[in-house]
Write a structure and sequence with these properties.
Number of helices: 11
Distance between the termini: 10 Å
Largest sheet: 9 strands, parallel
Oligomer: single chain
Strand content: 15-25%
CATH class: Alpha Beta
Shape: globular
Strand order of the largest sheet: 9-8-7-4-3-2-1-11-10
Radius of gyration: 19 Å
Number of strands: 11
Order of helices and strands: EHEHEHEHEEEHEHEEHHHEHH
Structural class: alpha/beta
Bound molecules: flavin-adenine dinucleotide
């Protein structure tokens, strides 16, 4: 019955063999965006994803807004919310309080990240007490261990309702992985070593940075397995449907897009046709990594449901395939 495969831990009631799907959102920046995001979450929930993750600003700038979105998912859907947490710039005590705050809100799945320090001459300046994501993984487990065995938490699907019970343990502690290399990595071997260190620290799942070629992901997984990494490595895919966004993404991630995709998006004047180009590219890439053994798909949504749901439809993994029976 569990539709979770290697990447999942939660019974979903899905009777299909569909690979687990998950989504990433970011906190809205305005009230209007918050209303639109509520609708997007409702639509994404119809696909019965394994989890929906919500990003977190390095330095904690969006902490409250991240938590609001996570609470919405917890209280209005049956989908597992996953909180991104960053530790950059935090003292040990601050990171400890942050993890407790999210656990107290009923969030039990995390994507533990270091985050990026503010740009400056010394890239290691301002890192804080926890220098790597692996240390945050350990902290999340330790905070959970230290907590009282019982506590108050929200009731999924019942806004405002609270219940007393055994405190839930973290369902997942995910970490980031970089198939084409972290921008500061000295080589691909270091990215594999870093991932192994995160697994040793207690990570149960890895989610990759976006990539554009299936071989980048499949080669990374192979190297990671050879090095002893055993946790599922979920491919992170971002369907991109306009050239400006593609350029911005390249700037942010340093991952060069394929020239043919960049050119096709650039020369196509019609918005709908551009959307089809981006969706088709993402669907083909998703199909290739799934055939290569990927344990599921993690889709970066840009807070829009239309594009990612179209990609899933192209793959035959949309609402109908994910609907509970
Ligand atoms: P780490 O794993 O700690 O690695 C950081 C760097 O240190 C790497 O270069 C690594 O090679 C090196 N390193 C790590 N351990 C060691 C070691 N033992 N010895 C030597 N070198 C080491 N950022 C946000 O601010 N908010 C988000 O919500 C967010 N979500 C993300 C989601 C995903 C799926 C991904 C892939 C990235 C996300 N990021 C986010 C970006 C991330 O914070 C940055 O890429 C950051 O630079 C690295 O974070 P990390 O968790 O991979 O750090």
């Amino acid at each position: 019955m569990a539709a979770t495969g290697a990447a999942g831990t939660r019974e979903t009631g899905d009777c299909t063999d569909r690979p687990p799907i998950s989504f990433e959102l970011f906190p809205p920046r305005s009230d209007a965006a918050a209303i639109a995001l509520g609708r997007t979450i409702d639509r994404l929930a119809e696909v019965d994803p394994a989890f929906i993750s919500v990003t977190f600003g390095a330095g904690g700038s969006q902490r409250g807004r991240s938590l609001t979105v996570l609470r919405y998912i917890l209280e209005h859907t049956s989908v597992e919310p996953m909180a991104h947490l960053t530790c950059v710039g935090s003292s040990h005590a601050e990171a400890n309080r942050l993890v407790r705050e999210f656990l107290d809100a009923g969030i039990t799945s995390f994507l533990a990240l270091r985050g990026d320090p503010p740009e400056g001459d010394d890239p290691d300046a301002g890192l804080g007490d926890l220098g790597t994501a692996a240390e945050l993984v350990q902290l999340i487990h330790r905070v959970q261990e230290e907590r009282e065995p019982f506590g108050e938490s929200g009731v999924p699907g019942a806004p405002g309702a609270r219940r007393i019970g055994a405190r839930p343990r973290p369902e997942r502690v995910a970490v980031a992985a970089f198939p084409t290399g972290h921008p500061r990595s000295r080589g691909l071997a270091q990215d594999v070593d870093t991932l192994l260190a995160k697994e040793v620290a207690g990570a149960t799942l890895a989610i990759t940075q976006l990539f554009w070629h299936a071989d980048d992901y499949l080669g990374f997984v192979e190297r990671a397995r050879t090095a002893g990494v055993t946790i599922p490595i979920l491919p992170g895919l971002m369907p991109v449907t306009n050239p400006a966004r593609l350029a911005r993404l390249t700037e942010l991630t340093g991952v060069e897009p394929p020239a043919d995709l960049a050119i096709d998006l650039e020369i196509e004047p019609d918005g709908e046709a551009r959307a089809r180009i981006g969706e088709e590219y993402a669907a083909n890439l998703a199909g290739e990594v799934l055939r290569g053994g990927a344990p599921g798909l993690h889709l970066y949504t840009y807070n829009r449901h239309e594009t990612v749901l179209s990609v899933l439809d192209r793959l035959g993994l949309g609402v109908r395939a994910g609907r509970r029976t």
